[in-house]
Amino acid sequence: MARQFDRKIVLENGREFYGYGFGARVQAVNEIVFNTSMVGYQEIISDPSYTGQMVVMTYPLIGNYGLTDEDYETRVPTMGGLIVREYNDIPSNFRYTKTVSEVLEENGIPGIEGIDTRCLTRIIRNEGSQKVLVCDADLPYAVAMKIVKDTTLPTDAVHRVSCKKRWYSRTFNPRFNVVAVDCGIKLNIVRELNRRGCNVTIVPYDTTAEQILALQPDGLFLSNGPADPVDVPEVANLVRSLHGQLPIFGICLGHQIISIAYGGKTYKMKFGHRGGNHPVKDLATGKIMMTSQNHSYAVDVASLENTDLTLTHVNLLDNTAEGVECKKDSLFSVQFHPESAPGPQDAGHLFDHFLDLMDEAAKERSEENA
Hints:
Layout: E1 7-11, E2 16-23, E3 28-35, H1 41-45, E4 53-57, E5 61-62, E6 81-83, E7 86-87, H2 100-106, E8 110-113, H3 117-127, E9 130-136, H4 141-150, H5 157-161, E10 167-169, E11 176-182, H6 187-195, E12 198-204, H7 209-214, E13 219-222, H8 233-242, E14 248-251, H9 253-261, E15 266-282, E16 288-299, E17 310-315, E18 321-326, E19 331-334, H10 349-369
Parallel strand pairs: 3-4, 4-6, 5-7, 6-8, 11-12, 11-13, 13-14, 14-19
Antiparallel strand pairs: 1-2, 1-9, 2-8, 3-9, 10-12, 15-16, 15-17, 17-18, 18-19
Helix pairs in contact: 8-9
C-alpha cells in the first residue's frame, strides 16, 4: 500500500510541496533558507543562528549518523524546521544517542521529508528567501495562504536565544580571560577559546560596558547569532564604548555589528550564504580559505570607505565583505565561521591572532605599570 502524504509546506509565492512528517507535529511559519553542507546536520539543527528559519538541506540523505551528545552547538535547539529529500531514522554510528526526529520532537521543531529539495532550492535561489508554512497535508490551500500572508516574522531572535545569566567555561592553566557576548553563540567557539588557554565568561547580549570591564577581561568576543544586526543596537553601542580599550574579535553577526558600530552599513542578501564550501581570500596574504558560512545579511563594502575599518577578506563567489580590522584599536572580525572546520584547518589561525592581540595588550599594560 502506497504511503500517504501527511504534511506539506506552502511558500509565500503560492507553491505547495507535499511530504511526510517527522519531528514535532506542529504548524509553524518561518523564513525558508537552504544549506549546501554535505555533513554537519547536527551542528545546523543546534545552531542558534537558524532561529526562526526552516532549513532546506540540499544533500539528499539526512539522519544516517544520528546525533551525539558531544557535538551540539547549543543546549536547546531553536531552528524553525528541517526540510529534507530523504530522512533516515535508523542511524549507523556507535556514538549516536538520539535520532534527528527525537531531538526535533523534544524541542518542538517540525521536520518534513519527501520534498523535491532541488526544485525548492532553485526557487529560493531565483526568488530569494521567503515565508513558508509547514502544516498538515489536509489544510485547505486558501487557509494556508492566509496564514502565511497574515504572519509577521518576529525580530527578537537574539533576545530569545541569548543567555539570561552569565556562565563560565574554564580551562586548565589559563593564559587569558575572555568575555563573550552571547547573541546566539555556538559552543564550538567556546571550545576553541578554551583549547587555546582562555577562560571564557559568556554574558547576555545586553550586558553593559561597565559590567564587562568589571570582569577585567583580556579580550572581548562578539558571537554569531540570528536575524538582522540592526535589531541589536545594544551590542553596537557596546563596541562603540569599548573599542580601543581591549582587543575585540567578532564572528558572523558579531562582524556585522562591529561594522555598524564603526559607521558601516549592512543589507539583506537575496538568499544568504549557508554551507561549508565558500572560498574566501585573505587580501593581505592572497591565501584562499574554504569556509563555513551561515548568514542572511552582509556588510556593504562601499560603506566602509569613510570608517576606520579596513577590508581584510572577500568572498570569491560574489565579492561580499568577509572580514574587517582596525589595527589601532586591536579589533578584527570575519563573516565566516573559523570554528566550523570546513578546511578543516584553514581558518583556525584567526583564534591565534586574537590571542596575539591579547598578549600584546598585556605586555603594554605591564610596561605602563613598570
